Automatic annotation (TrEMBL):
Lineage: Bacteria, Bacillati, Mycoplasmatota, Mollicutes, Entomoplasmatales
Protein name: Aspartyl/glutamyl-tRNA(Asn/Gln) amidotransferase subunit B
SMART domains: GatB_Yqey
Reaction catalysed by this enzyme: L-aspartyl-tRNA(Asn) + L-glutamine + ATP + H2O = L-asparaginyl-tRNA(Asn) + L-glutamate + ADP + phosphate + 2 H(+); L-glutamyl-tRNA(Gln) + L-glutamine + ATP + H2O = L-glutaminyl-tRNA(Gln) + L-glutamate + ADP + phosphate + H(+)
Organism: Spiroplasma platyhelix PALS-1
EC class of the enzyme, as a word: ligase
Gene, per the UniProt record: gatB
């Protein structure tokens, strides 16, 4: 493999978060009942006329500007003609000749060194229907037909999987920060195609390009690149020819497998879309869109690090999860507890979401002010772990009561009074002399016994930290 130079280009399809589709008024949302979000335009009915979604154009301008691209103020669309079951009209509306953005760049860090990514273009287009294969049958879900996409194409400047991995991570965070896509690879809202070729180190001519389609995770991207480099290098070392073909990544074998060979270039017969007239965008309007851009990941990271003293690991999770980042911002304004808040969000809160298979906080009934109050109560030791977990589960499912109201309804409290706890512990010490002796031989076993008994007698309401300190103190005093 060291005898060859690797060249990789990346194409990313980004599904946008607009409320409606690119060229119709049908709803644009994930996981709806199949074929429940389809308009005559999406289904390709004769005479149905497309209407351009302004929000999609705004998203295109936001991404193009962020990636330092030249923005084309003349908005024009083209038809890409081909016949396939998932393309109801027999053509796709896209921007082949006139992309909304061109010639951009983005700097990322790879192995602690800067790496500059160069872009050819970003253009607006519509998605196809979704195919579901079951046995000998193929089902079509037209909900995805017409979903707005941005296709982002890099120049062939990558040389290894680490560079591509760093790029996709950085791009996801930009999309999340701009709030134009949820960028969830597992749901298909961020899909990646790779073009990989190898050439001898002395050669100035690029090798034969092989395309790998529809990669849907960072791990699969890395595995696919590494496997394809090995596959092509082994063929070249054996003096065999690399054939131009389209492949996919097989997750069972962790290898790329053949989809189809490219015997000739496909002629899509592009021509100007006649049903969408060109739109001249005013520079003032473009500037207004750009002026309203939110903070980008680097700016957010600086604030989280310098203002709130979060570490890189915590920052990375918040940059990857817009819902957790928004929750952090709101809660810290309420309780001014940045470290405690991020620990609780990335611990119990994220654990609950994962257990319940909930992808986003926004779909729950969680009231951020109630969560801020709970975190404060934990900090002040007004609730123990068991109580806080019960409160968390409850406020996830209903925002009717705040944590203090829940404790009153449940008639529970946390016992922090040392005098009250000492009386219980002294009685336990006096009644269990054998466990007092065990304390000096096997403190773990003895502590577990005494704390367990304290919790039993207080019905789980004792503060375990204070109880533990008192057990240690009172046993030593008893032995004196």
């Amino acid at each position: 493999m060291n005898n060859y130079d690797v060249t990789i280009g990346v194409e990313v399809h980004i599904e946008l978060k607009s409320k409606t589709k690119a060229f119709s008024s049908a709803a644009n949302s994930f996981a709806a009942k199949p074929n429940s979000q389809v308009s005559p335009v999406d289904a390709g009915y004769p005479g149905a006329m497309p209407s351009l979604n302004q929000e999609v154009v705004v998203s295109g301008i936001k991404l193009a500007h962020t990636l330092n691209m030249k923005i084309d103020p003349l908005l024009r669309f083209d038809r890409k003609n081909y016949f396939y079951p998932d393309l109801p009209k027999g053509y796709q509306i896209t921007q082949f000749y006139h992309p909304i953005g061109s010639n951009g760049n983005l700097q990322v860090t790879v192995a602690d060194k800067p790496f500059l990514i160069e872009f050819e273009r970003v253009h607006i287009e519509e998605d196809t229907a979704k195919q579901i294969h079951q046995g000998d049958l193929t089902y079509l879900d037209y909900n995805r037909a017409g979903v707005p996409l941005l296709e982002l194409v890099t120049k062939p400047i990558f040389n290894n999987a680490a560079q591509v991995h760093a790029y996709i991570v950085a791009l996801r965070r930009i999309l999340i920060a701009l709030d134009i896509s949820d960028a969830k690879m597992n749901e298909g809202s961020l899909r990646c195609d790779l073009n990989i070729s190898l050439k001898p180190q002395a050669s100035e001519t690029l090798g034969t390009k092989v395309e790998i389609k529809n990669l849907n995770s960072l791990n699969n991207i890395t595995l696919a690149i590494n496997d394809e480099i090995i596959r092509q290098s082994e063929l070249l070392l054996a003096n065999k020819q690399i054939e131009e073909e389209t492949r996919r990544f097989d997750e069972k074998s962790n290898q790329t497998v053949l989809m189809r060979k490219k015997t000739s270039a496909v002629d899509y017969k592009y021509f100007t879309e006649p049903n969408i007239f060109p739109v001249q965008l005013e520079q003032k309007w473009i500037d207004d869109v750009i002026s309203k851009l939110p903070m980008l990941p680097n700016e957010i990271a600086d604030i989280l690090k310098n203002k709130f003293s979060l570490n890189d690991s915590e920052i990375n999770v918040l940059l990857d999860r817009r819902d957790l980042l928004l929750a952090f911002e709101v809660i810290v304004k309420e309780n001014n507890l940045s470290k405690e808040t991020v620990n609780y969000l990335l611990g119990p809160v994220l654990g609950y979401l994962n257990t319940q298979q909930i992808n986003d906080l926004s779909v729950t009934k969680l009231n951020y002010q109630h969560l801020a109050e709970l975190i404060t109560m934990i900090k002040e030791q007004k609730v123990n772990d068991k109580q806080s977990q019960k409160i968390l589960t409850t406020i996830f499912e209903s925002d009717e009561h705040n944590p203090n109201e829940l404790l009153k309804l449940w008639d529970v409290r946390v016992i922090t009074d040392e005098k009250e706890l000492s009386e219980i512990i002294i009685k336990l010490i006096q009644d269990n002399p054998q466990m007092v002796e065990e304390y000096f031989k096997n403190p773990f076993k003895a502590n577990k016994f005494f704390i367990g008994q304290v919790m039993k007698q207080t019905k789980g309401q004792a503060n375990p930290k204070i109880a533990q300190e008192l057990v240690d103190k009172l046993i030593v005093e008893y032995k004196k």
